[in-house]
What does this fold into?
Amino acid sequence: MPTNKKPTPPVLPDSPQLRDYQTFIHGLESYHGWLDVDLVHNCFLMGEEVGELFKAIRVYNRYYETQKSTDPKADVAEEIVDVFNYLLAIANRLNIDLEQAFRDKNQRNISRTWDSEN
It folds into this structure.
């Protein structure tokens, strides 16, 4: 007899590593049935969240007064998490170990110089 038991939601462990966040987002997407959202659509969705982050920052800095918020900093934090979640989802779709990519890229950034006039 089939059961309509909903899957267990994912749990983020205490003191997680970046890999744990990627695993959590994979579990969250599985839990909500979002694993079939393709890479391009995830990028579009992340772009929308980046726009919401920018708007929340405008509200926080009082550059945009038509929208009132009881806690503008918490609104910015929520939008940062939304962007982070999509970033993790995109990395997962490409099977990128984000922690290793972070380490590799920032090791190059340490030895890199930028022209301060640009």
Remarks:
- The domain at 38-97 is CATH 1.10.287.1080 (Helix Hairpins).
- The first helix runs from residue 18 to 32.
- Helices lie at 18-32, 39-60, 72-93, 98-111.
